[in-house]
Amino acid sequence: MEITFGVLIFCIVAFFVAGFIDSIAGGAGFVTAPSLLLIGMPPHMALGTGKLATSIGSVVALWTFWRSNLILKKIVPVGVLSAMAGASFGAFCALQIDGATMGKVIVIMLPLGILFTVLTGGFKLTEGELPKDHFWLRVVLIGVLIGFYEGFFGPGAGTFFLIALHVFLKIGMVQSSGTAKAFNIAANFAAFMTFASGAAVCYEIAIPCAIASMLGNRVGAYYAIKIGGKFVRNILYIVLIILMVSLVYKFFIAS
């Protein structure tokens, strides 16, 4: 794949937009993965490159949650290790699939991930006491299972972590969001390390895209109240439709 100036600018814009959307409504991975595929990046490298860029970009949000004491810190060590283990195995499994097939798997999984995110996004419970029965087993299962999904594919994993923490551990939505960031970044980084071991990361694109993602998150956080999550999520769906049509043509028609 030739990295031209136009390709680099397209990726930077895509990751900035993804970071902007993610900070308000979530769903950055639904933009970054197909964007990298569209420039001709091999599927495994698209996943590995996206993992590195988004994990760096999300550190800003994690630091904000941590400073504001909006993370359930006592479960972070176990959750992070579990998520990293699951993500490493998920990425390893992805590397066992040939590139052409993996590209089609990604295209098929994108709408399924979007559908599940939409169906669970409005699911809310009242905050309660932490469950006493099998508490640490729940933490480990959340980390391993969703971590595996993050490593194998990824888009929507942050939302899935948030929902799982809220539903199965009874943590409040805001604290679940902060804690989910810790789990998600750990899973992203572990997956990146696995893809990197298979030479499936393009650092020339990942680093500038990471900076763009950080800037997008920063700008999005500033405009969150003015714009509102509903409007941004509608824009996300429009972008996704365009990307999906392009990917279906690329992997199922043109090939």
UniProtKB/TrEMBL annotation:
InterPro entries per the UniProt record, alphabetical = TM_pro_TauE-like, TSUP
Keyword list (alphabetical) reads: Cell membrane, Membrane, Transmembrane, Transmembrane helix, Transport
Q: What's the main place this protein lives?
A: membrane
Q: Which GO terms describe its cellular component?
A: plasma membrane
Membrane disposition: Multi-pass membrane protein
Q: Which residues cross the membrane?
A: 7-33, 45-66, 78-97, 103-123, 135-153, 189-215, 235-253
Top-rank taxon: Bacteria
Q: What is this protein called?
A: Probable membrane transporter protein
Organism (species): Parasutterella excrementihominis YIT 11859
